[in-house]
Structures are given as structure tokens and as C-alpha cells.
Design brief:
The protein is elongated. Helix 2 packs antiparallel against helix 3, helix 2 runs parallel beside helix 4 and helix 6 packs antiparallel against helix 8. By secondary structure, it is mostly helical. The longest helix is centred in the N-terminal third of the chain and has 29 residues. It has 12 helices and no strands. It is about 75% helix and about 0% strand.
Amino acid sequence: MRTAGSLALLFIAFGMALSGCKSRSREEIMTDPALVYERGHKAILQGDYPLAIRIYEALMARYPFAAETRQSRLDVIYAYYRAGESDSAIDAADTFIEENPTHPRVDYAWYLKGLTDFERMPNFMERWFRVDLNQRPPTQARRSFLSFATVVEQFPNSEYAHDSRRRMVYLRNRLADYEIAVARYYIDRGAYVAAAQRAKVAIEEFDGAPAVREALEIMVYCYDKMELKELAMQTRAMYRNNFEGEIGERKGPSKKKWYKLWLAS
């Protein structure tokens, strides 16, 4: 019995010693910003984004001026994004961009900001249930488009520029479709001035979108209704210069591409 009791005490003492070692190890890590950052980076590599967020937030709170903290402010954007914390990801991206406008990886912050808004848009389940997404105010789509445009225009050599262009084409088409949906709404209510203005926005802001063709048709229709013959004639000429046939005939595809160079793949 004495032997059993001695062994039990030995195991308890050994366990307490191990616990003490672990506690000292954690304390040692927290006194070194580089080690803390390494733990956060490891958590990201392992896909444990909530843990990475907690580590990065602790690092930024405890060592606000450390070199590793600056990198953590960038990495935590990605961790928020992957953890599904969209608002936190956007806020963190905005903060990083504002505080580090000349950082060599600020393009990455803009890209992640665009990606976060891009993935907040309505998903395929809503399409499955036949929800008309074109009639929804595309707030996230507009913000995402502008973020990707910043990457493309300000950082054309960025490794994220190509993917940003591809996503911009999709967003451009989505935004143009929304303008057409609004224009149709105004037509149904006899508000031809407003309808023509929304169609004009689709043409001027989203050049290259398939909806441009219908936008021109809407403008001609509205000008005819308002008896603005000169404007209707000019718009018809524009239509003929870019599409086969007269308005309403739909004889063929556009004669020339409307895509801007910065939207080319």
C-alpha cells in the first residue's frame, strides 16, 4: 500500500511539473512577439482561423509597435475572411489601408476587401429558388468592384490583378443588369426620363456588359415616348454602329468589342 501511495504521489508531482513547464513555455512565448506571430501563422496554416484571430489580436494589443504586429494586421484580415467574420475583415482591411498606404502588400489588403464583399453577395441557393437577384440593390457588388478596380488600376503588376480583372467582369455584368432592372421598373410606371438615365448609367459605367444592348434599346424607346427625335436618332445610330440590325431585330452579336483594355483577360 505504501508503494502504491508513493507512486501516486510521484505521478501527481510529475504532472504538476509538466503543467508548470507548459505555463512557463506560454509565458516565454508571450514575451517574444516573433514567437507569438509564429503561433498565429501556424494556426492559419492548420486552418484554425478562430485561434489565429485570438493570437493576432493578443499580439496587436500587447505589442502594438512590434514589427510582427504590422504583419499581423495584414494576416488577420485573411483570418477574419476565412472565419466568415466579414464585417471584421472589411474593418481590418480599411484600417490597414489607411495606416499603411505605401506598404508593399497593400494591394493584398485591397484584394481581400474586394473578395470579402464578393463572397457576401447572394449565393446559388437564392438562384435555385429563382430569386431575381438583379432587382436587389447590389451594395456589396459595387464595393467589391471598386476594391478590385483599385488593385487593377493602382497595382497593375500585382499577383492579384488578373483574378481581380476576372471578378470585375462578372461584377460589371451584374451591376449593369441591375441598372436595366431599375430602368424597366421606371418604364412600367411611365417615368421615361428616369428610365433613360438608368440605361445611360449602364452604358457609361459598365461599358462592355451584355446589358449595354438592352440599355440602348431602352433609351430609344424612352426618347420616342418623350418625342425627343434627335436623341432617339443619335441612339439608334450608336446601336447600328455596335450591333447587327435595327433595334428590336436582334440579328446578331455586336460588331465590335466594348471591353476596355483594363478589363481584358
